[in-house]
Specification:
The complex is a heterodimer of chains A (369) and B (90).
Chain A lengths: L8 E5 L26 H14 L3 E5 L9 H10 L3 E6 L6 H10 L3 E6 L4 H8 L4 H15 L3 E7 L7 H10 L4 E6 L5 H4 L1 H4 L3 H17 L5 E5 L19 E4 L5 E2 L20 H7 L1 H5 L24 H8 L15 H13 L20
Parallel strand pairs in A: 1-2, 1-8, 2-3, 3-4, 4-5, 5-6, 6-7
Antiparallel strand pairs in A: 8-9
Chain B lengths: L6 E2 L5 E5 L4 E6 L2 E4 L2 H9 L6 H12 L3 H17 L4 E2 L1
Antiparallel strand pairs in B: 1-5, 2-3, 3-4
Helix pairs in contact in B: 2-3
Classes of the chains: A alpha/beta (369), B alpha+beta (90).
């Protein structure tokens, strides 16, 4: 195996605590409790190690990162380490005073999540009354301070019709960029496929709207688009290739090749409390498990796309095919593809399903499907 | 890009020396763009006060190259950044 290159991006999940309880939350079902979270000093050390390792982009996420009272200190430490700092937030927990402190700390960019374009939709999806109103206030403060802003719209069957308004809102807020992300079915979202799976028609309509908006808003708003996965013919290039460009540090210091990697039962993860980050990246068993192409079975190993999408998502192969080394079932070459398409249509046609909200860290989770 | 236009790197977009890979990069939201020598030379001149014409004239003198060619190459490069909203023009 050729030696891995240094990572470019690190996702720091500062906490799993969050005032929202979105039914598609990417946090694991078993969340880290507050008393297990890395301390301020531990995070600072991780940021310095990440910069030494070659990380350029630091994404501060959660849970809700603003739940950490030391967020401002962490941003300052990350900037001092030489990292580009991106705050991924719902806005809840940010005040004008805290935003000004983050500005002074050197925060580079804010990514604000959008659960819906109306208070009714956003508050229902987020499971937090008054959240939308608060978010709009935070967006105003972000614009006043002048932070570069990306709006991160998460779309699914319930709110895909709001995509045109989400694009308008991004422009009105002065965002330079919007991520139009159709829900990916991992973690909590797997429990909510009957409620959230878009129909094939919705998925096609979203693609059409994005294509039209990209032309119309060229030079005003950059649109990054994550299409509906189950309705695609080729899998997504997950994480840019396992262990190739990015890593994820969980609240308790476990270092993961992607945020869902803990769903693969045989993987063993290192912790920054026990091992230097550089060793974990280059020599850690979890990072080397699916790095490159040597691990691939057929039909991936002889496929001309094997370095395009790296066989797709390992966690999805685990969840849907029961084998983390299998071809992502989204791929038309997967023996599970036809079945997946049928299941996607069945989920999308489900009459009405109540949302199963994520629970708080330390609380008993809902039973899995 | 017109000679009188003044390019500027907006907030959140900055040049950065990548000491691990030993190269200049342009850091922007969700992006890190590796810069070659030419890209770095152009962006180093972008200071938010000098016009595109002044910048290309300066580069032509510095590298002893025809200004027309430099203007053409620079306009393509800066135009692509502008489309991504990594560059603004006053």
């Amino acid at each position: 195996m050729t030696k891995a290159r240094p990572p470019i991006a690190m996702l720091a999940e500062l906490t799993h605590r969050c005032p929202l309880s979105c039914p598609y939350c990417s946090n694991p079902i078993e969340m880290a409790r507050q008393d297990a979270e890395l301390s301020t000093e531990e995070w600072k050390s991780v940021f310095a190690q990440a910069a030494d390792l070659g990380v350029l982009q630091l994404h501060l996420s959660g849970g809700e990162p603003a739940t950490r009272r030391d967020l401002e200190d962490l941003v300052q430490a990350a900037r001092e380490a030489g990292l580009y700092t991106n705050l991924i937030t719902s806005g809840i927990g940010l005040t004008e005073r805290r935003l000004k402190a983050l500005d002074a700390a050197g925060l580079d960019h804010v990514q604000l999540s959008l659960q819906g374009t109306t208070p009714e939709m956003a508050d229902e999806i987020g499971g937090y009354k008054g959240g939308f109103k608060r978010k709009m206030q935070v967006a105003e403060w972000i614009a006043e301070i002048g932070f570069p802003l990306t709006l991160n719209a998460v779309l699914h069957r319930r709110n895909l019709h709001q995509l045109p308004r989400a694009l308008e809102m991004a422009v009105e807020m002065g965002a330079r960029r919007i991520e139009v992300a159709t829900v990916q079915f991992h973690g909590w979202a797997l429990k909510n496929r009957d409620a959230l799976m878009p129909t094939r028609e919705q998925a096609a309509e979203a693609t059409r709207i994005v294509q039209e908006a990209r032309l119309r808003l060229k030079g005003t708003l950059v649109i990054d688009y994550v299409p509906a996965d189950y309705h695609s013919d080729y899998p997504k290039r997950c994480m840019g290739g396992w262990g190739s460009t990015g890593l994820n540090v969980a609240p308790d210091g476990q270092v993961l090749p992607c945020h869902a990697a803990q769903t693969i039962p045989h993987l063993r993860f290192d912790n920054v409390r026990e091992r230097p980050l550089s060793e974990i990246w280059y020599d850690g068993a979890a990072f080397n498990a699916y790095r490159g192409t040597d691990w691939m079975p057929e039909p991936c190993s002889s496929c001309e796309r094997k370095t395009v999408d790296f066989g797709g998502c390992r966690c999805q192969a685990m969840a849907l095919a029961g084998d983390p080394a299998a071809t992502d079932p989204v791929c038309i070459k997967s023996p599970h593809h036809v079945d997946l398409q049928a299941r996607a249509d069945a989920h999308a046609a489900a009459e009405y399903a109540a949302l199963i909200y994520r629970s708080a860290p330390g609380k008993a989770p809902e039973p899995a499907e | 890009m017109q000679p009188a236009e003044i390019p500027t790197l907006p907030r959140g977009v900055r040049l950065h020396w990548d000491r691990v890979r030993e190269t200049w990069v342009l850091l922007a939201p969700e992006r890190a763009i590796t810069l070659d020598q030419v890209g770095h030379a152009i962006l180093s001149e972008v200071d938010g006060s000098r016009s595109f014409g002044e910048i290309t004239a300066g580069l032509a003198a510095k590298y002893n190259a025809p200004q027309e060619q430099i203007a053409k190459d620079s306009a393509g490069f800066l135009g692509a950044l502008r489309e991504r909203r990594f560059l603004e023009v006053a």
